[in-house]
Every structure is written in C-alpha cells, then in structure tokens.
Design brief:
10-stranded mixed β-sheet, 20 helices, alpha/beta, Alkaline Phosphatase, subunit A, 19% strand
C-alpha cells in the first residue's frame, strides 16, 4: 500500500512537472505569423444583425466563425476626437499613435487643447513606421494586404504608405507599389498606373488585372491581383466568375505568405461593411459582414493548425448607429424573427446595385422590377417619388415636375428602410467601442477585456518582438533631409508637379524623388529598403539616414 502511495506521488510530481513545462512552453511560444482582420466601420449591432440573419436563413447556423474568439472591446479614436475615420484609427493599430482625420500613418499636428493623448508639435507630418513595414525590414517576414475597396484606400494605405491626405492616391498608390509587399489582392485595377505596373513586373511579381482565372492559378509567391476599376462589389452583388470572395482572397494570400520560413504579416479588410453602413443599407451590411466572417474562418483554421499564428479581429470604428428594432415599427420589441428579418431576406441586391438597375428601367417597369428584387410592392406615392427623382433620366415627368437636387439613391434607400425594422441614427461614423476577437497560441498572453487602440498596437508589437522598435525605425528610415544632408549642398525642384531633391558633393549627385524606393546616384538606380515621403506642408523629404553614407563614401 505504501509503495502504491509513493508511486502515485511520483506520478503526480511527474505530471505536475510535465504540465508546468507545457505551460512555460506555451507562454514562451514564438509568434511567427500575425493576421489582422479589420471589418471596416462595423458596430457590434452590425455583427448581431448578421448573426441573426444567418440563423434566420439557416436555422442550424447559430454562430459566426468569430464567436469562439470574442474576448473584449477596443476604444478607437483620433488624436483630437473620440470619433475617428479609417485613416487615423487603423494608423494607430499600425503605428501606436492616434492621428488626425485623413492622416495615413503620419504623425498629427498637435492640438494642446483637444488632443486626447499628448502630441509633440515638432513631429507634425512625420511618417511613422508601420508593423507591416517593420515585419519585412527587421524580421524578413513576407507581407500581404487583402481588401475589397481600391488598394490606395485608407485602411490598406495605413499599413504601407504615409500621407496627411488619405485622398491623395497619386502619392499613396506608388508608395504601396514600391513598398515591396509580397501579396496584394483587392480592388483598384483602374487606378494602378503604368510606372507601378512596370516596377512590379521588373521585381518579378505576377500582376493580374480583372483576371480571376490567372489569380486562382498563379503558382508564384509574389502577386498583385486587382479587380474592378475601383472598389469591388458588395458580396451580395458579386459575380464569382469576375471577382473572388474575401475568403478566397484570404486563403490564397495565406497560402503564398506562409511559404516564408520567417513568417508573415497579413492585413485583411472587410472594406465595404463601412460603405454599406454609410448608405444605411442593412442587406449589404449583412452580406459583407458574413463574407468577412468567412474570411475570418480561413484565418482561424490556419492558425489553429499552424500553432504559431496570432489572429486578431477588430473593427477600426463603428458606423451608422444601426439597431435591431426601431420606433418606426410599433411594438418592435415583440416582433418575431419573421417580422424582423423576413423582408430583408427578400432583398436580392445592395441599394447601389438596385439603383443602377433602376436607372436603366423604364417607368412602366419600375414597380415590377422593385417587387422582383426586394419583395416590396411600391405604393403610388412611392412610385411617384421615383419618377420625381432629378437624376432618373428615363422619368416620364418633365424637369419642372421633379424635385430639384433629389437623387434616386436617397429615395430608394428611404423606401427600403421603411419596410424593415432596423434603426439608423446616422449615415456617418460612431464612437462606441468595437469588439475584439483573438486567437493566440500563447493562452496566458491572449489580450482580453477593455483596451485602447494604442494598447492593441503594443500587444501586436510584443507578439512580433518589435516592442520599443517602431520609434527607432521611424527615426532611421524617415529622417528629415535637412538633418541627413546637413553640411551638403542640396536643392528641391518642382517640374510638372514632380518634386525632386538633389544633393551634391563634388562630382557625386544623389537624386531623390518621393513615393518610391528608387534613388539615383550619378544617374544609376539604387533600390532602398523603404519608400521616400515628401511633405509639401513643410517642404521636407523623409528618407533613410543611410543615404548620407552614399555621399560620404564618394567623399573619401
């Protein structure tokens, strides 16, 4: 009996040591890959609406792919305001610094009265090193972007470009092309210019524009695949023979990026959930949220199998103040699932797609077309409202009989909204916290509870072993030309809207142009490890400190 007790104690001790060792291994497990998935402009109510809709259409599908991983909330904000837009909010995820509306991974102009966190006025307009850039430069990881907007749009730009104006695609697009991102998949085939195309081809990329078959069959590791002239379709309107789903794009990106033994950083954006929310288009919010959730499923399945991948799902901000239930529906709190979701389930298109169809529909066919695509039988009053739209060119009414300034877009959206019991408080962004979902192979280090956007950045930094690294990298790769070339002769010239920096040292001339990683030394091209940024506000080039060495070598 005593021997048995001794044996049991030994077994217990061994078991304890095994469990303890396993726990230590789990805590110290290296994060090789990071996948950040951002459903743009997604309030928690948008998630709930999509989940209930899925359950209504498929009663056996109670949960979303993200559900087992939801673990907290994130407060997002601009540097000077509680409600942010995509540019400064995702910039903060990428850099650790909140910024001003419209700023893409760029240090904000300080506002001592309104700044939510203190900002240094001397750093205004400074490009900030992003996690994606640091992953490639410091860790030799592959990098990727997947999205459904056009590629220079705010969120993908935040990861790989720098500008104080998010709309300056002529600055942002070439920066993204020259920033050596391994995989870029999304919208914007009509935006990429010839210089960017040629650069990518010279660098060995597979470049595919509106070619879904080539995208699906390309075996190479480096690829840009762009669809549609600008943004891709809402998922409910998507033709799979012309545009891949967000889940398919995510799966392809993961497959290519995971071939790098050093790992990868991938950002996936469900871009047009935000666009649907701006339009108060409940059906498009639902369809794009569910499409995004399928992409999350691809990421979580890979991570659980891989064991070295951190997956984070977090919106950049809320939008529209959507609610399940509205005062426009008497007794809405007791409505059945059929009464709440039956009508929206009959909608076969987004509002945008419906409007495009109606623009080409003769007045006599309007009512039947709306009935076929929405299940709504227009009243005579609603039918007249469509005819009165100022931009409905096929209207049977004269210009004098129409409502000046009215647009079919708003009229149709309001008509459809009348027949559902969803509420919207605004067509703009909102400031509530957003949900956080995380898969971390280190269970004890998983981020849970309430955190700020700055804290989320530091969580990712820590996982990537980049804690305290982004600031020195910013200083090293985005130094002011006035500091780098102090003591040298230099000029900034603008010709045909092209700004260039020329630095001279005896017989050596260095030519630097913005938004590219190519400089010329005595007329010969040299490739940098980062892009050069020019800010016209302070007439300053931001570039690597190492450029000075090119002139110093020649000096000797």
């Amino acid at each position: 009996m005593k021997n048995e007790c001794k044996m049991m104690k030994r077994l217990s001790s061994v078991l304890f040591l095994i469990l303890f060792a396993t726990s230590l291994i789990a805590q110290n497990k290296e994060i090789k890959n990071v996948i950040l998935l951002i459903p743009d402009g997604t309030s928690l109510a948008s998630v709930s609406t999509a989940r209930w809709f899925q359950r209504y259409v498929n009663p056996e599908m109670i949960n979303l792919n993200i559900d087992p991983y939801i673990c907290g909330t994130i407060l997002t904000y601009s540097s000077d305001a509680p409600i942010g837009d995509s540019a400064p909010t995702t910039s903060c995820y990428m850099t650790g610094y909140p910024s001003l509306a419209g700023y893409v991974s760029t240090y904000p102009v300080a506002d001592s009265i309104n700044d939510i966190v203190p900002m240094n006025p001397e750093k205004a307009y400074q490009p900030l090193m992003t996690l994606l850039e640091a992953a490639r430069i410091v860790k030799n990881k592959s990098t990727g972007l997947v999205f459904t907007c056009e590629f220079p749009h705010a969120t993908p730009a935040d990861c790989s470009a720098h500008s104080y104006k998010r709309g300056k695609y002529e600055w942002i697009a070439p920066q993204m092309a020259h920033n050596q991102i391994d995989v870029v998949i999304g919208g914007g085939a009509g935006i990429i210019n010839d210089e960017c195309k040629q650069f990518l081809k010279n660098e060995g990329y597979g470049l595919f524009l509106n070619d879904v078959n080539a995208f699906r069959n390309y075996p190479g590791d480096k690829m840009w695949a762009l669809f549609a002239d600008k943004d891709m379709s809402f998922d409910i309107d998507r033709n799979p023979e012309q545009e891949p789903s967000l889940a398919e794009m995510t799966k392809v990106a993961i497959d290519k990026l995971s071939r790098n033994k050093n790992g990868f950083f991938l950002m996936v954006e469900g871009s047009k959930i935000d666009w649907a929310a701006h339009a108060n288009d409940a059906r498009a919010i639902i369809s794009d949220m569910l499409a995004f959730d399928e992409a999350c499923g691809e990421a979580f399945r890979f991570a659980e199998k891989d064991g070295e991948t951190l997956v984070i799902v977090v919106p950049d901000h809320g939008n529209s103040g959507i609610s399940i239930g509205s005062n426009k529906c008497p007794g809405y709190s007791t409505l059945t699932k059929d009464q709440l979701f039956g009508q929206v389930a009959k909608f076969k298109t987004s509002v945008d797609a419906l409007i495009q169809i109606l623009h080409d529909t003769k007045p006599a066919d309007l009512q039947q077309t709306v009935l076929d695509l929405t299940g709504i039988a227009l009243t005579n009053e609603e039918y007249t409202q469509l005819l009165q739209s100022a931009d409905y060119n096929l209207s049977s009414l004269s210009d004098e009989e129409r409502m000046k300034g009215s647009k079919l877009t708003k009229i149709v959206a309001k008509i459809l909204d009348k027949y559902t019991c969803f509420g919207f408080t605004t067509s703009g962004h909102t400031g509530e916290e957003v949900f956080l979902a995380v898969y971390d192979p280190r269970p004890d280090q998983r981020l849970t509870g309430f955190h700020t956007n700055i804290e989320l950045n530091h969580y990712m930094r820590n996982a990537m072993d980049l804690e305290n690294r982004l600031e020195p990298l910013t200083d090293e790769y985005f130094a002011k030309h006035t500091d780098v070339f102090k003591g040298y002769t230099y000029t900034i010239d603008t010709l045909n809207n092209n700004t260039a920096l020329k630095v001279k040292n005896k017989k050596t001339t260095l030519e630097v142009q913005p938004n590219t990683n190519i400089v010329k030394l005595n007329g010969k091209d040299l490739k940098l490890n980062s892009v050069v940024v020019y800010v016209d506000k302070n007439n300053t080039f931001y570039l690597p400190k190492t450029l000075k060495e090119l002139l110093e070598v020649k000096k000797k």
